[in-house]
Structure formats: C-alpha cells, structure tokens
C-alpha cells in the first residue's frame, strides 16, 4: 500500500501499510486507535475525554471535523475511517482495498489483471 497523506492545519497525517498512522506531533499509533479517537471526538466533542483524545492526536477539533466531512467525498479517507467490517474489499480475493480506483471498481489491481 502506498502511504496516504491527509493535510491538517497542524501538519500532515500519514497512514502507512494500512495499520500505522503518523500524526503531526510525530507520534505513531495504530489505525484502529486513530479511528476510535476520531470517532470519540466527533461523537462527544465537549467531553473531557475528547480534549484528551485531541491532545493525543495532536489535532484541533476543527481538523477532526474537516477529516470526517471530507470522508463523505474522498473514498480513500472514508475507507481509512470506516470500521474494519465496513471497509470495501476485493470481490475476488477479499483483501481490503486502499486506492481510489480499486475502491470504486470493487477489485484490486492484481485481481483485475487475472
């Protein structure tokens, strides 16, 4: 998987190999932890836990809102923020798809060649 870079006001978020997320603060976390922190901030924005999650992410609440609203139009970002059971998988081999063309077609590049 090629790295996915998401711009924010604080810097860039880079997602590598489908599981590691590099935050603007330089910290690295798992994709699952990143997704749950973003969900928590969106769901309960005024709670003390949301402020702690924002600090952990190194993002502002505006950054999180921008990421989640961009996910409506960006298929790759939607795939990143989706829970594992809701991710688009290849119709042929069942692998999770990470590039926009494959997500739209429902099949990965290797399987399309076969």
The number of helices is: 6
User: What is the tally of beta strands?
Assistant: 4
Helix amount: 40-55%
State the low-pLDDT regions, or none: none
Strand count, sense and closure of the main sheet? 4 strands, antiparallel
- Amount of beta strand: 5-15%
Give the overall pLDDT as a whole number.
Answer: 87
Rg? 15 Å
Structural class per helix/strand content? alpha+beta
Q: Into how many domains do the coordinates divide?
A: 2
Secondary-structure element order, N to C:
EEEEHHHHHH
How would you sum up this structure, described in words?
With 114 residues, this protein is of the alpha+beta class. It folds into 2 domains: 4-82, no CATH class; 87-114, no CATH class. The chain contains 6 helices and 4 strands, in the order E-E-E-E-H-H-H-H-H-H. A hairpin with a 2-residue loop joins strand 1 and strand 2.
């Amino acid at each position: 998987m090629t790295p996915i870079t998401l711009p924010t006001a604080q810097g860039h978020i880079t997602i590598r190999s489908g599981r590691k997320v590099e935050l603007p603060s330089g910290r690295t976390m798992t994709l699952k932890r990143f997704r749950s922190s973003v969900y928590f901030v969106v769901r309960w924005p005024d709670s003390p836990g949301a402020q702690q999650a924002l600090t952990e992410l190194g993002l502002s609440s505006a950054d999180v809102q921008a990421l989640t609203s961009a996910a409506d139009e960006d298929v790759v970002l939607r795939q990143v923020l989706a829970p594992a059971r809701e991710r688009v998988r290849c119709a042929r081999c069942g692998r999770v798809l990470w590039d926009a063309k494959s997500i739209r077609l429902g099949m990965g590049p290797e399987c399309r060649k076969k």
